[in-house]
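Quick one: co-fold with S-adenosylmethionine.
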Amino acid sequence: MAHLRAAQIHMWTVGDYPVIATHLLPISRIAVKAVDPQSGESVLDIAVGTGNAAILAAKAGAKVTGIDITPAQIDRAREHCKAEGVRVDLQVGDAEHLDIPDESMDVVLSVMGLIFAPDFIAATRELARVCRPGGRVAITAWAANSWSATWREKVAHLSAPAAGPTPDEWGDPVVAIDRLGSAGLSAKVEQRNFAWRFPSPQAALETFLTAAGPFVSFMETLESHDKAEEGQRLLLEAIEETNVANDGSCTLPAPYLLMTATR
Ligand SMILES: C[S@@+](CC[C@H](N)C(=O)[O-])C[C@H]1O[C@@H](n2cnc3c(N)ncnc32)[C@H](O)[C@@H]1O
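Sure, here it is.
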């Protein structure tokens, strides 16, 4: 698993994640609203990224801890918290082995984060372990019919298949319910709508290629096999095929699953 961990850290270090986090903020708002953190409650944000959900919970008066496997993300989260004037206890850590006492959190959430832990059994077990009985849990995952599925299908022939479990598996509600159920959490799963919005398809392409770690690192791999040009062409094709805007701008529907549970 060490090579998968290193690949994750690389993927979320390259690019310019704060740009992506700005797009994804509405999803954190929904997840935080679902768990409704109260003043003085303890909240853990697993895979905190640059702090979107953690900052919202801290602004609600909660005592927030954020962990992320990528040191560069924790550095960005520190800057973000400072700019927003909130205190969050930020730590480099792995969702699969949380350095957090049993049953110590009133709320545990993870926005498009825990789904990247390859050992989903360990990650869901840890999520349940640190949440107190009666505590609230919310996690999100991209739904199986998100626009990026079109892109992945298009480029599947260009690279070797993923070495381990992929975050996409979480996009199937049956799988998600089963995984959380194995950790003793009886989850409710709802599909919610999100859309990536850009001034044009070309702007979407540029943003994904420069800011989004998964695309940046995938293109690095293609470059080393002289296939980057084809990868970029296919990415633009996927963007144009899935774009639902008809005014020259670009709107890519990206439904996601919101899973909630009470421990
Ligand atoms: C798509 S970003 C989401 C970040 C943030 N939650 C947000 O909503 O913007 C995925 C995050 O998961 C983190 N991550 C991936 N695997 C992890 C693991 N095993 N443990 C903790 N964090 C992990 C990455 O470093 C990255 O910051």
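If it helps, The chain is about 45% helix and 20% strand.
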